[in-house]
Amino acid sequence: MKFFIDTANLADIQEAQDMGVLDGVTTNPSLMAKEGITGTANILAHYKKICNVVPGHISAEVIATDYKGIIEEGEKLAALHPQIVVKLPMIADGVKACKYFSDKGVKTNVTLVFSAGQALLAAKAGATYVSPFIGRLDDISTNGLGLISEIRLIYDNYGFETEILAASVRHVMHVIDCAKLGSDVMTGPLSAIKGLLKHPLTDSGLAKFLEDYKNGND
Ligand code: E4P
């Protein structure tokens, strides 16, 4: 399972990269705004900075919602750096643009996916990644993880190569459940990645080992 970090915060990205377990980064316009990165030039420069920290796929989202605008914007993003994955909204023009980019060999991530039907369309259009937002489905009292299972079944039935990128991951149990269900990738905050480290028996076991070593070597 690949681990992506879902943030535009360079310190968090660097920390996850330094752990040695990071495979890529996802961003979105809200995450950019949260870091105070505004204006096209600054946003593009920030994507480049992220590419220089993590040697994996970096999703950069288009703002345009019409086909022509999506293509123009997506081409600019793709030209920025070979690691860039063009992130496209799950709307008719986004799906059409996905087909255009996949035919050209440009990597894509279809975002804002909330149903198996949408995921099927993204795969048909040749998406590199499909991003089902499990946390936001949970937020409205529906079953986010159930969607991962449905997509896994459908993709396996037909051998679709689109990778399932579980998005809107909020905590450690989301990561573990996505791994059990065969999600290819998960993208979450640094806390969800670091949270995997934690177990009280690890902490108390290590403390005891160190204490015994100290007592035997004093
Ligand atoms: C995915 O690519 C999105 O950036 C993200 O996972 C959305 O997560 P949120 O629902 O926590 O905003």
Automatic annotation (TrEMBL):
Location, primary (coarse class): cytoplasm
Record-linked InterPro entries: Aldolase_TIM, TAL/FSA, Transaldolase_3B, Transaldolase_3B/F6P_aldolase, Transaldolase_AS, TSA/FSA_arc/bac
Gene Ontology biological-process entries: carbohydrate metabolic process; ketone catabolic process; pentose-phosphate shunt
UniProt keyword annotations, A-Z: Cytoplasm, Pentose shunt, Schiff base, Transferase
Gene Ontology CC annotations of this record: cytoplasm
Active site: K87 (schiff-base intermediate with substrate)
Pathway: Carbohydrate degradation; pentose phosphate pathway; D-glyceraldehyde 3-phosphate and beta-D-fructose 6-phosphate from D-ribose 5-phosphate and D-xylulose 5-phosphate (non-oxidative stage): step 2/3
Catalytic activity line of the entry: D-sedoheptulose 7-phosphate + D-glyceraldehyde 3-phosphate = D-erythrose 4-phosphate + beta-D-fructose 6-phosphate
Matching SUPFAM superfamilies: Aldolase
Keyword Cytoplasm on entry: yes
Subcellular location: Cytoplasm
EC id: 2.2.1.2
GO molecular function: aldehyde-lyase activity; transaldolase activity
Family (UniProt): Belongs to the transaldolase family. Type 3B subfamily.
Known role: Transaldolase is important for the balance of metabolites in the pentose-phosphate pathway.
Stated name of the protein: Probable transaldolase
Lineage, top ranks: Bacteria, Pseudomonadati, Bacteroidota, Flavobacteriia, Flavobacteriales
